[in-house]
């Protein structure tokens, strides 16, 4: 698969909340960085984070507003949407993906504002 | 100037803390968005924000770690560094620029984590 097709398939798996399908598109030693917090290395760590994020929501929709490809690099501007009992959480994200020759994502780095996420999470789940 | 040259010149002006030089590269009706806060429209608003950011620091260095060009769009991953009395503040940023045919920046959108900025600002300036 071409790099953009890999990223598109990854996002489609995320939206289905298909954790196995999403993780299968990450390299064994994937570097996964949510920029506001510490980066992680390896599928297991990525799986733990994704599981928490995806399975706590009732629906997941990652709207891609722009996507640019340069060689093995895929960059997108997204609005990551998560439906909770109280409504939809919407998080603007800039994502950078590096896809290896093996068709697996070797780097996934998301820039976003953590407070934008946490404040909505608190409102929509009654926590926070 | 090509889109990438415009963005490079803009960043160079920022690093010189040359507010007039930076603003001259923005379109009259530039859309300037710091994603964690409200977007602004127009040079005057961009100038007010940039002035506050640039002139409060003693030195400014925006390190570009990756830059990708696609037509009129320039995307970069940066570490925006600001030196205060207490030391350097370092902010990871994903920047998206759209450059018009007139060689001026029509859209400038930066994704970053506001708390990463504010926490360091508080530590380095004794405020916050």
**For the CA atoms, what is the radius of gyration of chain A?**
14 Å
Helical content class of chain A: 25-40%
Distance linking N and C termini of chain A: 41 Å
What percent of residues of chain A are in strands?
A: 35-45%
| Dominant shape of chain A | globular
* Total beta strand runs of chain A: 6
- Describe the sheet with the most strands of chain A: 6 strands, mixed
* Strand order across the largest sheet of chain A: 2-1-6-5-4-3
Low-confidence stretches of chain A: none
What structural class do the secondary elements of chain A suggest?
alpha+beta
Q: What is the arithmetic mean of pLDDT of chain A? A: 96
How many helix segments of chain A?
A: 4
Protein chain pair with the most extensive contact, residues per chain? A-B, 20 and 20 residues
Task: Encode the helix/strand succession of chain A as letters.
Answer: HHEEHEEEEH
What's the assembly state of these chains? homodimer
Overview of the structural elements:
Two copies of one chain form a homodimer. By secondary structure, the first copy, chain A, is of the alpha+beta class. Helix content of chain A is 34%, strand content 43%. Chain A is built from four helices and six strands. Chain A has helices spanning 3-15, 19-23, 43-55, 114-125, and strands at residues 26-34, 40-41, 59-70, 73-84, 87-99, 105-111. A six-stranded mixed sheet of chain A has the order 2-1-6-5-4-3. In chain A, strand 4 and strand 5 (87-99) form a beta hairpin. Chain A is globular. The N and C termini of chain A lie far apart (41 Å). The interface between A and B is medium-sized, with 20 and 20 residues.
């Amino acid at each position: 698969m071409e790099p953009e097709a890999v990223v598109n398939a990854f996002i489609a798996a995320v939206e289905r909340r298909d954790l196995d399908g999403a993780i299968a598109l990450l390299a064994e030693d994937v570097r996964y960085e949510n920029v506001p917090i510490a980066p992680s290395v390896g599928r297991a760590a990525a799986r733990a984070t994704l599981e928490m994020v995806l399975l706590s929501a009732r629906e997941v929709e990652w709207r891609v507003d722009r996507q640019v490809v340069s060689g093995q690099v895929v960059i997108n501007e997204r609005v990551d949407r998560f439906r909770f009992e109280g409504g939809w959480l919407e998080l603007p994200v800039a994502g950078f993906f590096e896809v290896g020759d093996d068709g697996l994502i070797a780097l996934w780095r998301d820039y976003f504002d953590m407070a934008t996420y946490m404040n909505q999470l608190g409102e929509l789940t009654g926590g926070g």
